Amino acid sequence: MAAAERGYLLDPLEGYAAAISPERRERIARAHRELIEEADPAAIEAARSLARDLAQGDPEFPPAKVLAAQADFVAAEPGERKEIVALLLPVGDAIPTYTASQMVLGRAAELGGDLPLAYAAYRAVAAKNALALRRAGELHPRAVEIVGNRLRAALAGNDLDAAGRELTLLQAWAPAEAATFEAARALAVAKGDRRAELAAIQGLAERRPADREILERRSELELAVGDPAVGLKIIQSLADKNPQDPQIAARLGAAKFLWRLSLLPAKVREVAAKPELNRADLAVLLFWLVPEVRYGKPSEGRIATDVLDHPQREEIVRVVNLGLIEVDETLHRFSPGAPLRRVTALKSIVRLLSRYGTPPACLGDQRSTCEAAQRCGLLPEDEDCQSSDPLSGADVVELLRRTLVLLGRA
What we know:
Blueprint: H1 22-38, H2 41-57, H3 62-75, H4 82-94, H5 99-111, H6 115-124, H7 130-156, H8 160-173, H9 178-191, H10 194-207, H11 212-225, H12 228-241, H13 246-262, H14 266-272, H15 279-289, H16 291-295, H17 313-321, H18 342-355, H19 369-375, H20 393-406
Helix pairs in contact: 1-2, 1-3, 2-3, 3-4, 3-5, 4-5, 5-6, 6-7, 7-8, 7-9, 8-9, 9-10, 10-11, 11-12, 11-13, 12-13, 15-17, 15-20, 18-19, 18-20
């Protein structure tokens, strides 16, 4: 056995806090000493024999497992250390600060090519052992890189649970490193968790204060799920630095709109954050986001019998009497809880555009709501106007923002 390996084979009782009789302690120390000094077949077998004897009364006796693992380590040929890792992993899980166990586990894992496991073992006892501290420092960059690669592979295979486990390691090992924030962002995006993505982006922004892509995305997320004032401030700063950039100017306009939304009553913000809207929700957003609706004078007196006790009665009655959302002509029902369909929202918006101010030329003859919406940039050409997929609050807020731009109000 090379002299350099001896530093990994500590007294099997080092770091083991449980009580043990002096007689057992002496037997373990003697077998360990002979194993290290002689490293011959007789010493190896003696250590294994004692480990078996110690395990007879207690098969899970940790020092017995460590001594057996050390004997196997001395006897092993290069690459033959998987059994050692399998033997000591449960010990490390049960007693993370057991120095003798973690040192031989770490070295066996390292020589076997499992650098993250080796790093974890050394790191667990780095405060108690100088060699462990040094090896943990040397392995840290590579271990973090490997775990990051495993996380990306898990995401590529859509295994979000496995990716989450790898991220937990990164957050424990490198909580302030950019690689960890990048990994957290990737997992958040895969899960569709915008709040988690914002937390990751905030960490990245501190480390890359001049990264425009990071700043723009942080602004979007702050406006959507964070602090809208911060989001507006970020995009305003970018606009000040890039006054001729039309993309930034457009983002600034959208940011101002979302910031104003953040100042509206809580019930409006709650609707805007909903993943799926109903017809009553559309009435709320039309009423509060479009000044002409909130302050306009109704020209009709239609009755909707199913909204008399509805909490959004005021908003519903207003949009109905402005002719922006239809009521069943036979039953006089508005159906406030019915899911909002895309074509319903677009029809209301096209009516809004045609009734207030100078109707945009893009409306054309309005014979087709879908065509008018696409010509006016309210709906991408490849998007199905008749889709039955639910509309979210964010979807409708963006539609209304574009509508106000067309009306010259934003």
